[in-house]
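Request from the bench team (R.T.):
"We need a structural guess for the complex before ordering more fe (ii) ion. Sequence and SMILES attached. Just send the C-alpha coordinates back."

Command: build protein-fe (ii) ion structure.
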Amino acid sequence: MWSYCNPVDVSFGAGAFEALPKLINGRRYAIITYPDAPFEALTQSLQKVAGAAVLVINDIAPNPDFRLLGDQCARFDGLPQAPEVLVALGGGSVIDSAKVYAAALGDFRRVQRFLETKEGGSELGATPIIAVPTTAGTGSEVTHWATVWDEQSNHKYSLALLGLYPEHAVVDPALMLGKPAGLTLATGLDALSHALESIWNINANPVSARHAVFGAKTILRDLPALMKDLGNLDLRSSIAEASLAAGLAFSNTKTSIAHNLSYPMTLGWHVQHGIACSFTLPVVLESVKGIGGFREDSLKDIFGPDLGAGAQQLTAFLAELGVGHRMNDHGVPSTAFRMIVDEAFAGERGRNFVGQKENFLNAANRLGVI
Ligand SMILES: NC(=O)c1ccc[n+]([C@@H]2O[C@H](COP(=O)([O-])OP(=O)(O)OC[C@H]3O[C@@H](n4cnc5c(N)ncnc54)[C@H](O)[C@@H]3O)[C@@H](O)[C@H]2O)c1
Ligand SMILES: [Fe+2]
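Reply to R.T.: structure attached below.
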Protein backbone atom coordinates (compact mmCIF):
# COMPACT_ATOMS: atom_id res chain seq x y z
CA MET A 1 0.00 0.00 0.00
CA TRP A 2 1.26 3.46 -0.82
CA SER A 3 -0.12 6.89 -1.67
CA TYR A 4 1.24 10.02 -3.32
CA CYS A 5 -0.17 13.54 -3.09
CA ASN A 6 0.91 16.96 -4.25
CA PRO A 7 -1.80 19.62 -4.49
CA VAL A 8 0.22 22.47 -6.09
CA ASP A 9 -0.86 23.79 -9.54
CA VAL A 10 2.29 24.19 -11.63
CA SER A 11 2.91 26.50 -14.60
CA PHE A 12 6.30 25.96 -16.25
CA GLY A 13 8.21 27.67 -19.05
CA ALA A 14 10.08 30.78 -20.15
CA GLY A 15 7.61 33.67 -19.86
CA ALA A 16 5.40 31.95 -17.25
CA PHE A 17 5.94 35.05 -15.06
CA GLU A 18 3.50 36.91 -17.36
CA ALA A 19 0.64 34.75 -16.03
CA LEU A 20 0.89 36.23 -12.52
CA PRO A 21 -1.79 38.96 -12.85
CA LYS A 22 -4.29 36.31 -13.94
CA LEU A 23 -3.37 34.11 -10.99
CA ILE A 24 -3.59 37.01 -8.52
CA ASN A 25 -7.00 37.62 -10.06
CA GLY A 26 -7.85 40.92 -8.37
CA ARG A 27 -7.00 39.75 -4.85
CA ARG A 28 -5.15 42.00 -2.38
CA TYR A 29 -1.58 40.77 -2.63
CA ALA A 30 1.84 41.18 -1.04
CA ILE A 31 5.16 40.71 -2.83
CA ILE A 32 8.04 39.03 -1.01
CA THR A 33 11.48 39.32 -2.59
CA TYR A 34 15.17 40.33 -2.26
CA PRO A 35 16.49 43.90 -2.30
CA ASP A 36 18.63 43.46 -5.46
CA ALA A 37 17.99 45.42 -8.69
CA PRO A 38 16.58 42.60 -10.92
CA PHE A 39 13.96 41.81 -8.26
CA GLU A 40 13.08 45.49 -7.88
CA ALA A 41 12.49 45.65 -11.66
CA LEU A 42 10.27 42.52 -11.57
CA THR A 43 8.33 43.97 -8.61
CA GLN A 44 7.68 47.17 -10.55
CA SER A 45 6.65 45.37 -13.73
CA LEU A 46 4.23 43.10 -11.85
CA GLN A 47 2.56 46.06 -10.11
CA LYS A 48 2.14 47.85 -13.44
CA VAL A 49 -0.10 45.07 -14.72
CA ALA A 50 -1.58 43.62 -11.51
CA GLY A 51 -2.13 46.90 -9.63
CA ALA A 52 -0.29 48.04 -6.50
CA ALA A 53 0.60 45.41 -3.91
CA VAL A 54 -0.68 46.14 -0.38
CA LEU A 55 2.79 45.34 0.95
CA VAL A 56 6.24 44.77 -0.54
CA ILE A 57 8.77 42.98 1.65
CA ASN A 58 12.07 43.28 -0.14
CA ASP A 59 14.67 42.70 2.55
CA ILE A 60 14.85 38.89 2.47
CA ALA A 61 18.30 37.64 3.48
CA PRO A 62 19.64 34.10 2.90
CA ASN A 63 18.44 31.54 5.49
CA PRO A 64 15.31 33.05 7.16
CA ASP A 65 16.20 33.80 10.78
CA PHE A 66 13.99 34.33 13.87
CA ARG A 67 15.09 37.93 14.35
CA LEU A 68 14.34 39.29 10.86
CA LEU A 69 11.17 37.19 10.53
CA GLY A 70 9.79 38.74 13.73
CA ASP A 71 10.28 42.23 12.32
CA GLN A 72 8.86 41.32 8.89
CA CYS A 73 5.74 39.60 10.30
CA ALA A 74 4.92 42.76 12.29
CA ARG A 75 4.64 44.71 9.03
CA PHE A 76 1.53 42.65 8.15
CA ASP A 77 -0.05 43.61 11.45
CA GLY A 78 0.15 47.30 10.59
CA LEU A 79 -1.93 46.95 7.38
CA PRO A 80 -5.57 48.16 7.20
CA GLN A 81 -6.48 44.84 5.51
CA ALA A 82 -4.38 41.69 5.34
CA PRO A 83 -3.32 40.47 1.89
CA GLU A 84 -5.38 37.63 0.42
CA VAL A 85 -2.41 36.10 -1.38
CA LEU A 86 1.40 36.25 -1.01
CA VAL A 87 3.54 36.34 -4.17
CA ALA A 88 6.96 34.90 -3.26
CA LEU A 89 9.46 35.94 -5.93
CA GLY A 90 12.84 34.38 -5.15
CA GLY A 91 14.61 31.24 -4.00
CA GLY A 92 14.08 29.07 -0.94
CA SER A 93 14.69 31.89 1.53
CA VAL A 94 11.93 33.99 -0.04
CA ILE A 95 9.40 31.16 -0.40
CA ASP A 96 10.12 29.86 3.11
CA SER A 97 9.76 33.39 4.56
CA ALA A 98 6.38 33.68 2.78
CA LYS A 99 5.31 30.39 4.41
CA VAL A 100 6.21 31.82 7.82
CA TYR A 101 4.16 35.00 7.15
CA ALA A 102 1.26 32.85 5.91
CA ALA A 103 1.25 30.97 9.21
CA ALA A 104 2.07 33.91 11.50
CA LEU A 105 -0.85 36.18 10.52
CA GLY A 106 1.08 39.27 11.62
CA ASP A 107 2.56 37.82 14.81
CA PHE A 108 5.76 35.77 14.58
CA ARG A 109 5.42 34.67 18.23
CA ARG A 110 2.67 32.28 17.09
CA VAL A 111 5.11 30.49 14.78
CA GLN A 112 7.96 30.61 17.27
CA ARG A 113 5.82 29.01 19.98
CA PHE A 114 4.74 26.26 17.61
CA LEU A 115 8.33 25.58 16.51
CA GLU A 116 9.71 25.51 20.02
CA THR A 117 6.89 23.66 21.83
CA LYS A 118 4.80 22.03 19.05
CA GLU A 119 1.82 23.78 20.69
CA GLY A 120 -0.61 26.35 19.29
CA GLY A 121 -0.93 24.80 15.83
CA SER A 122 -4.63 25.66 15.64
CA GLU A 123 -3.81 29.40 15.96
CA LEU A 124 -1.67 29.35 12.81
CA GLY A 125 -2.93 30.70 9.50
CA ALA A 126 -2.45 29.61 5.89
CA THR A 127 -2.65 32.64 3.60
CA PRO A 128 -2.44 31.32 0.01
CA ILE A 129 0.97 31.59 -1.65
CA ILE A 130 1.94 31.90 -5.30
CA ALA A 131 5.57 30.73 -5.41
CA VAL A 132 7.78 32.00 -8.23
CA PRO A 133 11.18 30.33 -7.71
CA THR A 134 14.20 32.19 -9.08
CA THR A 135 16.64 29.43 -8.12
CA ALA A 136 16.53 25.81 -9.33
CA GLY A 137 17.22 24.13 -6.12
CA THR A 138 15.05 24.02 -3.07
CA GLY A 139 11.75 22.74 -4.48
CA SER A 140 10.04 24.88 -1.83
CA GLU A 141 7.46 25.87 -4.48
CA VAL A 142 5.94 22.37 -4.18
CA THR A 143 6.57 21.49 -0.52
CA HIS A 144 4.52 22.28 2.60
CA TRP A 145 7.37 23.23 4.92
CA ALA A 146 9.80 26.04 5.55
CA THR A 147 13.30 25.83 6.97
CA VAL A 148 13.61 28.42 9.75
CA TRP A 149 16.93 29.25 11.39
CA ASP A 150 17.67 30.67 14.84
CA GLU A 151 21.31 31.69 14.69
CA GLN A 152 21.23 32.94 18.26
CA SER A 153 20.44 29.51 19.71
CA ASN A 154 22.26 27.68 16.87
CA HIS A 155 19.09 25.82 15.93
CA LYS A 156 17.36 24.87 12.68
CA TYR A 157 13.60 24.26 12.67
CA SER A 158 11.16 22.96 10.10
CA LEU A 159 7.73 24.60 10.00
CA ALA A 160 5.61 21.86 8.39
CA LEU A 161 1.87 22.32 7.88
CA LEU A 162 -0.25 20.92 5.06
CA GLY A 163 -1.84 24.39 4.61
CA LEU A 164 1.55 25.75 3.53
CA TYR A 165 1.63 24.02 0.14
CA PRO A 166 1.66 26.96 -2.27
CA GLU A 167 -1.57 27.37 -4.22
CA HIS A 168 0.41 27.79 -7.44
CA ALA A 169 4.05 27.37 -8.53
CA VAL A 170 5.12 29.53 -11.46
CA VAL A 171 8.46 28.18 -12.67
CA ASP A 172 9.99 30.52 -15.26
CA PRO A 173 13.56 29.47 -16.20
CA ALA A 174 14.14 32.87 -17.85
CA LEU A 175 14.18 34.36 -14.32
CA MET A 176 17.17 32.12 -13.54
CA LEU A 177 19.43 33.32 -16.38
CA GLY A 178 21.20 35.85 -14.13
CA LYS A 179 22.14 33.37 -11.40
CA PRO A 180 25.91 33.51 -10.79
CA ALA A 181 28.04 30.36 -11.02
CA GLY A 182 28.35 29.66 -7.27
CA LEU A 183 24.59 29.91 -6.72
CA THR A 184 23.81 27.82 -9.82
CA LEU A 185 26.13 25.09 -8.56
CA ALA A 186 24.94 25.06 -4.93
CA THR A 187 21.24 25.11 -5.81
CA GLY A 188 21.65 22.46 -8.55
CA LEU A 189 23.40 20.16 -6.07
CA ASP A 190 20.70 20.86 -3.45
CA ALA A 191 18.15 19.56 -5.98
CA LEU A 192 20.30 16.47 -6.68
CA SER A 193 20.41 15.83 -2.96
CA HIS A 194 16.61 16.15 -2.66
CA ALA A 195 16.15 13.61 -5.46
CA LEU A 196 18.52 11.02 -3.93
CA GLU A 197 17.38 11.65 -0.35
CA SER A 198 13.80 10.91 -1.39
CA ILE A 199 14.88 7.46 -2.64
CA TRP A 200 16.88 6.16 0.37
CA ASN A 201 13.95 7.21 2.50
CA ILE A 202 11.44 5.19 4.52
CA ASN A 203 8.65 7.37 3.05
CA ALA A 204 9.58 6.69 -0.60
CA ASN A 205 6.87 5.46 -2.95
CA PRO A 206 6.97 4.46 -6.62
CA VAL A 207 5.70 7.86 -7.84
CA SER A 208 8.15 9.87 -5.73
CA ALA A 209 10.91 7.53 -6.94
CA ARG A 210 10.05 8.15 -10.62
CA HIS A 211 10.21 11.93 -10.12
CA ALA A 212 13.53 11.45 -8.29
CA VAL A 213 15.11 9.28 -11.00
CA PHE A 214 14.22 11.84 -13.66
CA GLY A 215 15.50 14.73 -11.51
CA ALA A 216 18.81 13.09 -10.59
CA LYS A 217 19.58 11.82 -14.12
CA THR A 218 18.88 15.26 -15.59
CA ILE A 219 21.11 17.08 -13.10
CA LEU A 220 23.97 14.58 -13.56
CA ARG A 221 23.67 15.05 -17.34
CA ASP A 222 23.11 18.82 -17.64
CA LEU A 223 24.56 20.63 -14.61
CA PRO A 224 28.22 20.42 -15.81
CA ALA A 225 27.18 21.80 -19.23
CA LEU A 226 25.18 24.62 -17.60
CA MET A 227 28.18 25.56 -15.43
CA LYS A 228 30.11 26.23 -18.67
CA ASP A 229 27.22 28.09 -20.34
CA LEU A 230 25.25 30.00 -17.69
CA GLY A 231 23.24 32.00 -20.24
CA ASN A 232 21.83 28.92 -21.99
CA LEU A 233 18.03 28.99 -21.60
CA ASP A 234 17.58 25.34 -22.66
CA LEU A 235 19.98 24.16 -19.96
CA ARG A 236 18.40 26.51 -17.39
CA SER A 237 14.99 24.98 -18.31
CA SER A 238 16.32 21.48 -17.99
CA ILE A 239 17.77 22.08 -14.50
CA ALA A 240 14.62 23.97 -13.43
CA GLU A 241 12.50 20.99 -14.50
CA ALA A 242 14.84 18.61 -12.67
CA SER A 243 14.64 20.71 -9.51
CA LEU A 244 10.84 20.74 -9.77
CA ALA A 245 10.84 16.94 -10.18
CA ALA A 246 13.10 16.57 -7.14
CA GLY A 247 10.70 18.84 -5.25
CA LEU A 248 7.72 16.70 -6.25
CA ALA A 249 9.66 13.65 -5.08
CA PHE A 250 10.73 14.87 -1.65
CA SER A 251 7.45 16.73 -1.03
CA ASN A 252 6.15 13.26 -0.10
CA THR A 253 9.18 11.91 1.73
CA LYS A 254 11.06 14.86 3.29
CA THR A 255 14.84 14.68 3.25
CA SER A 256 17.09 12.16 4.93
CA ILE A 257 20.57 11.60 6.30
CA ALA A 258 22.62 13.86 3.97
CA HIS A 259 20.48 16.84 4.98
CA ASN A 260 20.76 16.01 8.66
CA LEU A 261 24.54 15.80 8.29
CA SER A 262 24.50 19.20 6.59
CA TYR A 263 22.74 21.39 9.19
CA PRO A 264 25.53 21.56 11.80
CA MET A 265 28.04 22.21 9.00
CA THR A 266 25.95 25.19 7.82
CA LEU A 267 25.33 26.52 11.34
CA GLY A 268 28.83 25.88 12.69
CA TRP A 269 31.12 26.29 9.68
CA HIS A 270 28.93 28.33 7.30
CA VAL A 271 29.05 25.72 4.52
CA GLN A 272 26.46 26.76 1.90
CA HIS A 273 23.33 24.59 2.13
CA GLY A 274 23.56 23.03 -1.37
CA ILE A 275 27.22 22.11 -0.89
CA ALA A 276 26.78 20.88 2.70
CA CYS A 277 23.93 18.52 1.75
CA SER A 278 25.61 17.11 -1.37
CA PHE A 279 29.30 16.40 -0.69
CA THR A 280 28.38 13.39 1.50
CA LEU A 281 26.07 11.85 -1.14
CA PRO A 282 28.71 9.38 -2.48
CA VAL A 283 29.21 7.94 1.02
CA VAL A 284 25.48 7.57 1.55
CA LEU A 285 25.13 5.90 -1.86
CA GLU A 286 27.97 3.47 -1.13
CA SER A 287 26.37 2.66 2.23
CA VAL A 288 22.96 1.65 0.81
CA LYS A 289 24.24 -1.05 -1.57
CA GLY A 290 21.94 -4.03 -1.14
CA ILE A 291 18.89 -2.24 0.32
CA GLY A 292 16.79 -3.96 -2.34
CA GLY A 293 13.30 -3.26 -3.68
CA PHE A 294 12.27 -0.30 -5.82
CA ARG A 295 14.67 1.99 -3.92
CA GLU A 296 17.75 0.06 -5.06
CA ASP A 297 16.25 -0.36 -8.56
CA SER A 298 15.80 3.42 -8.75
CA LEU A 299 19.40 4.06 -7.69
CA LYS A 300 20.61 1.51 -10.28
CA ASP A 301 18.50 3.27 -12.92
CA ILE A 302 20.49 6.42 -12.15
CA PHE A 303 23.99 5.03 -11.47
CA GLY A 304 24.10 1.64 -13.24
CA PRO A 305 24.10 -1.88 -11.79
CA ASP A 306 27.13 -1.43 -9.49
CA LEU A 307 26.34 1.18 -6.82
CA GLY A 308 29.93 1.06 -5.53
CA ALA A 309 31.09 2.20 -8.96
CA GLY A 310 28.21 4.70 -8.88
CA ALA A 311 29.60 6.19 -5.69
CA GLN A 312 32.99 6.62 -7.41
CA GLN A 313 31.28 8.27 -10.41
CA LEU A 314 29.40 10.62 -8.11
CA THR A 315 32.64 11.57 -6.32
CA ALA A 316 34.23 12.31 -9.71
CA PHE A 317 31.15 14.30 -10.82
CA LEU A 318 31.38 16.49 -7.70
CA ALA A 319 35.16 16.86 -8.04
CA GLU A 320 34.77 18.03 -11.64
CA LEU A 321 32.48 20.76 -10.32
CA GLY A 322 35.07 21.72 -7.69
CA VAL A 323 33.27 20.09 -4.74
CA GLY A 324 35.57 17.90 -2.66
CA HIS A 325 34.19 14.91 -0.74
CA ARG A 326 36.23 15.39 2.46
CA MET A 327 35.06 17.34 5.50
CA ASN A 328 38.35 19.27 5.43
CA ASP A 329 37.60 20.45 1.88
CA HIS A 330 34.77 22.50 3.42
CA GLY A 331 36.58 23.76 6.50
CA VAL A 332 34.94 21.22 8.82
CA PRO A 333 37.53 19.56 11.10
CA SER A 334 37.71 15.75 11.01
CA THR A 335 37.39 15.79 14.81
CA ALA A 336 33.76 16.93 14.41
CA PHE A 337 32.89 13.97 12.15
CA ARG A 338 31.72 11.49 14.77
CA MET A 339 29.59 14.01 16.64
CA ILE A 340 27.94 15.19 13.39
CA VAL A 341 27.24 11.60 12.32
CA ASP A 342 25.84 10.55 15.72
CA GLU A 343 23.49 13.55 15.86
CA ALA A 344 22.44 13.14 12.23
CA PHE A 345 21.41 9.51 12.71
CA ALA A 346 19.53 10.33 15.92
CA GLY A 347 17.61 13.28 14.41
CA GLU A 348 14.23 13.29 12.66
CA ARG A 349 15.58 13.37 9.08
CA GLY A 350 18.16 10.74 10.01
CA ARG A 351 15.38 8.42 11.05
CA ASN A 352 13.93 8.74 7.51
CA PHE A 353 17.05 6.99 6.24
CA VAL A 354 16.69 3.33 5.24
CA GLY A 355 20.42 2.60 5.65
CA GLN A 356 22.52 1.66 8.67
CA LYS A 357 24.92 3.84 10.63
CA GLU A 358 27.58 1.12 10.68
CA ASN A 359 27.50 0.80 6.88
CA PHE A 360 27.71 4.58 6.61
CA LEU A 361 30.80 4.72 8.85
CA ASN A 362 32.46 1.90 6.86
CA ALA A 363 31.67 3.66 3.58
CA ALA A 364 33.05 6.95 4.97
CA ASN A 365 36.27 5.08 5.78
CA ARG A 366 36.50 3.46 2.36
CA LEU A 367 35.91 6.76 0.53
CA GLY A 368 38.30 8.65 2.82
CA VAL A 369 35.92 11.35 4.00
CA ILE A 370 37.98 12.17 7.09
N1 LIG B 1 11.27 24.55 2.06
C1 LIG B 1 12.00 23.69 1.43
O1 LIG B 1 11.49 22.70 0.93
C2 LIG B 1 13.50 23.90 1.34
C3 LIG B 1 14.30 22.93 0.70
C4 LIG B 1 15.66 23.18 0.61
C5 LIG B 1 16.22 24.34 1.11
N2 LIG B 1 15.43 25.26 1.75
C6 LIG B 1 15.98 26.52 2.30
O2 LIG B 1 16.11 27.48 1.24
C7 LIG B 1 17.18 28.37 1.53
C8 LIG B 1 18.13 28.45 0.35
O3 LIG B 1 17.42 28.91 -0.78
P1 LIG B 1 18.15 29.14 -2.18
O4 LIG B 1 19.27 28.21 -2.30
O5 LIG B 1 17.10 29.11 -3.23
O6 LIG B 1 18.79 30.61 -2.08
P2 LIG B 1 18.30 31.91 -1.29
O7 LIG B 1 16.85 32.13 -1.47
O8 LIG B 1 18.85 31.86 0.10
O9 LIG B 1 19.06 33.05 -2.10
C9 LIG B 1 20.49 33.17 -2.01
C10 LIG B 1 20.93 34.39 -2.84
O10 LIG B 1 20.65 34.15 -4.20
C11 LIG B 1 20.27 35.36 -4.85
N3 LIG B 1 19.41 35.01 -6.00
C12 LIG B 1 18.27 34.25 -5.96
N4 LIG B 1 17.76 34.10 -7.21
C13 LIG B 1 18.60 34.75 -8.04
C14 LIG B 1 18.61 34.95 -9.46
N5 LIG B 1 17.68 34.44 -10.27
N6 LIG B 1 19.60 35.69 -9.99
C15 LIG B 1 20.58 36.22 -9.19
N7 LIG B 1 20.63 36.06 -7.85
C16 LIG B 1 19.64 35.34 -7.28
C17 LIG B 1 19.57 36.17 -3.79
O11 LIG B 1 19.72 37.52 -4.00
C18 LIG B 1 20.21 35.68 -2.48
O12 LIG B 1 21.16 36.59 -2.03
C19 LIG B 1 17.85 27.85 2.79
O13 LIG B 1 17.39 28.57 3.91
C20 LIG B 1 17.39 26.40 2.86
O14 LIG B 1 17.37 25.92 4.18
C21 LIG B 1 14.08 25.06 1.84
FE1 LIG C 1 18.06 21.03 0.57
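Two things stood out. The chain has two domains: 9-175, 181-367. The CA atoms of residues 31 and 43 lie 7 Å apart.
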